Amino acid sequence: MASTFDDPPHSVLVEVSSKDYLNALRILTEASAFFQTSSSHALKGKFHNQLAIVLNNLSKETHREDYTDRALIEYAAASFHFEQAGHTRYRARTFAFGKMA
Fold first, then answer.
1. Where are the domains of the chain?
2. Phi, psi of 92 (to 5 degrees)
3. Assigned CATH topology for domain 10-100
4. Per-residue pLDDT tens digits for 15-32
5. What are phi and psi of 74, to 5 degrees?
């Protein structure tokens, strides 16, 4: 794995676009340690938001409520980090997506 990321790994975007949400979840899970140690709240917010999107899609695809619950937790984490970073627009958007989960 690369030692730095600017955003959640681009391979996740490929997996999401091909609807391979389990693989996207695997990639994000493997990368989570890097994002948790980052001092950038904006980066952490992007990570948690992408994880929430993947979990929300998995929930819809598999009809598993535990994925919905985890998605809501990740949306809340994303909102917190966006607030800490001063990204009001991202925070509002994350809040809206979290309400739809």
1. 10-100
2. -65, -40
3. 1.25.40
4. 887 889 999 999 999 999
5. -70, -40
